[in-house]
Design a protein that fits this description.
- This protein has 197 residues and is α+β, with helices and mostly antiparallel strands.
- Helix content is 39%, strand content 21%.
- It contains six helices and twelve strands.
- It has a four-stranded antiparallel sheet with strand order 2-9-6-7, with helices on one face. Strands 4-3-8-5 form a four-stranded mixed sheet. The protein has a two-stranded antiparallel sheet with strand order 1-12.
- A hairpin with an 8-residue loop joins strand 6 and strand 7.
- Belongs to the type-I restriction system S methylase family.
């Protein structure tokens, strides 16, 4: 393995803000990946035209604001204007390896922002970080990629399931509070409710 800088091995592709953003999902719209959407706090959608798209195996980094330097992985959709997609230029580096390297350095990246009023990720600082460039024939590296790949897939599935369940919870809670739907307190009450239907 040899030690190299990230410069020349990765590049940033800054996101773009779509012309129109929607709150409701439809078949022709893609998820608009803002920090709140990636954190599961919001759901926004837009047309996937003239924008930067991310796949589940792309690394995303927050470039603007207080969260500058925060790393995300496993999201499908339109990259927001405050984020950048991290593209790997060196085939010897796997996405998982670079993701975990950046995640490990996340706080350091956040501490080295530029700008006074609104912080921005310092791309030059990120590109100056030194990473161990693996030997592609190294058995340990291939084992790492295989093991971490299956773990990352499970994390993505769990995150997707958590977001889906949170959405269901958020739609059911107002109905429970208003009395539109009821939860039986005991088996007898549940049986009575079923008999009425």
């Amino acid at each position: 393995w040899k030690i190299v800088k990230l410069k020349g091995n990765i590049k940033f592709v800054k996101g773009k803000k779509p012309k129109i953003i929607f709150k409701e999902k439809s078949d022709e719209l893609s998820k608009y990946l803002t920090i709140n959407v990636l954190s599961g706090k919001d759901y926004l959608y837009a047309h996937p035209k003239s924008v930067i798209l991310a796949e589940k195996d792309n690394i995303l980094m927050v470039m603007d604001g207080a969260s500058s330097g925060k790393i995300y992985f496993g999201a499908n959709g339109i990259v927001a204007s405050t984020l950048a997609k991290v593209e790997i230029l060196n085939n010897d580096l796997s996405t998982e390896y670079v993701y975990h390297f950046l995640k490990y350095n996340e706080n350091e990246i956040n501490n080295h922002t530029t700008g006074s009023a609104i912080p921005h990720t310092d791309k030059n600082f990120v590109l100056s970080l030194k990473i161990a460039l693996p030997d592609t024939n190294d058995i340990m590296f291939s084992k790492f990629n295989k093991a971490i790949g299956s773990i990352e897939n499970k994390i993505i599935q769990n995150n997707d399931e958590n977001k889906r369940l949170a959405k269901i919870r958020d739609s059911l809670l107002p109905k429970l509070m208003s009395g539109e739907i009821r939860v039986p307190i005991n088996d007898k009450e549940g049986d009575e409710q079923l008999c009425k239907k």
